[in-house]
Amino acid sequence: MSRPREEKYQAILDAATEVFAEYGFFNSQISKIAKLAGVADGTIYLYFKNKEDILVSLFTERMGQFINEICQEIEECRSAKERLLRIIKTHLRYMQENRSLAMFTQIELRQSNPKIREAISGPLREYFQSIERVLIEGVNNGEFMVPDIKVGRQMLFGTLDAMVSDWVISKKPRSLEGLEDVAFHLICGAFRIRDVN
Length: 197
Hints:
The protein is an all-alpha fold. 77% of the residues lie in helices and 0% in strands.
């Protein structure tokens, strides 16, 4: 994709994030997305087949960036415990910095039809696998006690997901900052995480 074409594509995705977050997917119109992106309505169709295609592309692209960031962050860590803390911190920070995306992922995607949910499942599976690899590493080197890796991953992701959902729907504006240590402390207790010398 040429640079101007790529810039328009990203502008459309950015606009779609804002429009979906504000109006909801079903009430969002292509014309609203086009107007916010600064392009003609017809230009949208040069990049996307329809509104559902925008939604799938948006999730795949933004979640891809999120997962790349997490992978880079945990690569720098020396222990599974550090990697787990980095996952928690990165997840909460990324959502805080991208509130419209958080609103879109926490509310709108849960209401989408099964075909859309299936189309966006790839990036989520990749994230889940990253979490599971960290849990397996922690179990194998004696840092964690996780009797079932899949349930452990569900518990960790479910905790972060619930925290972000609560933050998004809260009537009082507040920050996710500082909650990563609380979440990590709870997870440490659940997984009986300890330091390994």
